[in-house]
Amino acid sequence: MKILIIEDETELMEVIRQSLEKESFLVESAGDYASALDKIISFDYDCILLDIMLPGGSGLDILQELKNMDKSDNVIIISAKDSLDDKLTGLELGADDYLTKPFHIAELNARIKSVLRRKSFGGKNTVELGNVKLDLDDRTLHINNQPLLLNRKEFDILSYMVVNKNRLVNKTSLAEHVWGDHMDEADDYEFIYSQIKNLRKKLKESQAGIEIQAVYGLGYKLIVL
Amino acid sequence: MKLLNHTLKYLSITLLVIISIWAAIFYVNMLDEVYDSLDDGLDNYKLLIIKKAEEDSTILNKKEFAESNYEIRELPESVAILRKDIHQDTLMYMLNEEDYEPVRMLTSAFALNNKYYELKVISSMVEEDDLIEDLLYSLIWLYVAMIASILIVNNFLLKKTWKPFYLLLDQLKQFKIGKDPMIKPAETQVKEFKELNEAVTLLLNRTLETYQGQKQFIENASHELQTPLAISINKLELLSEREDLTESNLVAIGQIIQTLERLKRLNKSLLLLSKIENKQFQDNEQVDINAIFKNLIEEFSDFADYKNVHISFQENDQLYAYMNKDLAEIFVTNFLKNAIVHNVDNGSVDVTINPASFTIRNSGSNIPLDGQKIFQRFHKKSNEKNNTGLGLAIVKAISDLYGLSVAYYFDNGHKMTVYFK
């Protein structure tokens, strides 16, 4: 899987690169408009992370170029500007997603994997991990081919943890992903614990091959047993 | 005090002084002239009497004034020689007035046929008190007439002249920076008013520019902060995944991430606030407030359970508002969040939807809050670190944008009511 990061902030690009390499992706990067254009014309990528404000031009112009080449469907726009106009233009030009800085690494991971799943499995939006099978479109969970009923939040937590397997997921990131931005003043996110507790219990009772571990003070980590 | 009346005050005092001094001088001069004329008359009369006495000696026996206005008495020679003409004021009983009235009297002496006589001639004269009274009354009338005419001129003429000034003043009183279009001063020919209009317009333009610049600055600064924040948080997230970290390292990293998250929230809130104030939320639509509440109460249920706060929802009506949907959600979210966060263990949040209003009541501290201050930016009562202190400021900005009114009152709990038009 080849991913291109188009981002002029070297440090941010470096962090994203390191994170993506942990997921065993092949990562390339471009720091300005010209080299980005050069790369998208010369190579094919499975996913492109695109910053809008670039030295030498606008990311939206690159997106237009990609659309002309019919390659814009795997683009995730990452922008410091939470602008509705940019978002609408970007999505109109065929971008798959729009992520506002600052974002969590786990969130970026989840979005990238969502793009890749849609590309690779011919629309079959499922994730398998050991004896655990998640269908992200039907929102169903099977363990050892046995269905296990989860409530909406439990399912959201599990799918987020599964795409970020073996990675430490910050509890803020988890709360924002599952409960939305509304919870941003909520007491260090301790309230998410009760949902996680229930989810763990259900997974254990169904003898799932995965476990959600708490990492003290930081968040959670899903590991394959 | 109005400018018109202000000048009038000084004018009336000045006029009073001038008229008083003028009256005193006028009175003295007039009286002097009157005496002069009277004394001339008396002198002439004296000569006439002496002349008559030379022809008719009977009048030398007229020893009382009685019906005429002179009397003659014989004088010893020694006294008469020393006599000089004396004009003096004296009192005399007047039959018609039944009172003593002032008269002017000339006392003189003359010699006739080697005999010496004293002659007193009188003339009735001006009654000074009457004169003063008359003068006083006329002056009061003059004074009143002058003040009245100044008033009339002020009110009609000056009012007309000052019209551009008052027009400008009215506009300035109403003017709210950032909300109203630029003021439109009235056309005027008066140089001072023209200059005033120009100066005010210039000042307002500059202020407006600064205001816009400042608003833009907050937005730009917030934007610029996003990237360094992203780098820091993401680097720490990556760092925390390293295998060689001890538990205390992880705790420390966790705390730094939480602090950065706080900064991120603060920055987001500031950005939101300036976006609202810069009117960057357009796309208004008919928003179902009931549905937003239902949805958000569900979203908040985990948090409320964790805080052991019970949320009740009562719909007495279906409430719609014409506004931006995102802002409507933020509006309701901030109320709900506020009510849950500032609550007590085993507390409650009661939401009631009424026709054209909704009320959120929550249990909490028993001390009423300052209804003015709670909507100010960074007004924090608690030192809760997760509170940006901007939640209610955002609520205020949204309600200002849409002309909603928010009222806080304490009634066995904290109550916030939002009235829709």
Automatic annotation (TrEMBL), chain A:
- DNA-binding region residues: the ranges are 124-224
- Give the record's GO CC terms: cytosol; protein-DNA complex
Which Pfam family, just one, is annotated for this protein? Trans_reg_C
Tell me which stretches of the chain form a coiled coil. Answer: none
- What's an example GO BP annotation here? regulation of DNA-templated transcription
Please provide the record's keywords in A-Z order: DNA-binding, Phosphoprotein, Transcription, Transcription regulation, Two-component regulatory system
Q: Which SMART domains does the protein's record reference?
A: REC, Trans_reg_C
Q: Could you tell me which residue ranges the Response regulatory domain spans? A: 2-116
Under InterPro entries, the record lists: CheY-like_superfamily (IPR011006), OmpR/PhoB-type_DNA-bd (IPR001867), Sig_transdc_resp-reg_receiver (IPR001789), WalR-like (IPR039420), WH-like_DNA-bd_sf (IPR036388)
Is DNA-binding included in the keywords of this UniProt record? yes
Q: Does the keyword Phosphoprotein apply?
A: yes
Domain of life of the native organism: Bacteria
All copies of the OmpR/PhoB-type domain together span: 124-224
Please give the residue positions where the record annotates the modification 4-aspartylphosphate.
D51
GO MF: phosphorelay response regulator activity; transcription cis-regulatory region binding
How is this protein named in the record?
A: DNA-binding response regulator, OmpR family, contains REC and winged-helix (WHTH) domain
Source organism (scientific name): Dyadobacter koreensis
TrEMBL record, chain B:
Which top EC class is named for this enzyme in its record? transferase
Which Gene Ontology MF annotations are present? phosphorelay sensor kinase activity
Give the Histidine kinase domain ranges: 220-421
Which domain of life does the protein's organism represent? Bacteria
InterPro entries, alphabetically? HATPase_C_sf (IPR036890), HATPase_dom (IPR003594), His_kinase_dom (IPR005467), HisK_dim/P_dom (IPR003661), HisK_dim/P_sf (IPR036097), TCS_sensor_his_kinase (IPR050428)
Q: Can you state which reaction this protein catalyses?
A: ATP + protein L-histidine = ADP + protein N-phospho-L-histidine
Its Enzyme Commission number? 2.7.13.3
A Gene Ontology cellular-component term: plasma membrane
Q: Which UniProt keywords apply?
A: Kinase, Membrane, Phosphoprotein, Transferase, Transmembrane, Transmembrane helix
Stretches that traverse the bilayer: 7-28, 135-158, 390-410
KW Nucleotide-binding (keyword) present: no
> What protein name does the entry list?
histidine kinase
Species, as recorded? Dyadobacter koreensis
